[in-house]
Write a structure and sequence with these properties.
By secondary structure, the protein is of the alpha+beta class. It has a domain at about 10-55: 2,3-Dihydroxybiphenyl 1,2-Dioxygenase, domain 1 (Roll), CATH 3.10.180.10. About 15% of the residues lie in helices and about 25% in strands. A 4-stranded mixed beta sheet has the order 1-4-3-2, with helices on one face.
Length: about 80
Amino acid sequence: MKITGLRPMMWTEDLKGTIDFYVNVLGFGADEVNEEWGWATLSIDDVAIMLARPNEHTPYDKIGFTGSFYFNTDDVDALGKN
């Protein structure tokens, strides 16, 4: 078996604002956005992420994250110039 990718799911209280940041600042494309579900999938090159608003099926007090995401690029100076 070979693992060929990772697609993290990140919670956000501001789905539209988060999508706007990834699309307009980092250059991701919005592959699918479902406002009714409070969910989106974004991608750029071989990288994909999913975003979701917290839902009633999972205990939730506030947004929290205990790690970091590192995006590797071949031209960091071009990042955000889209």
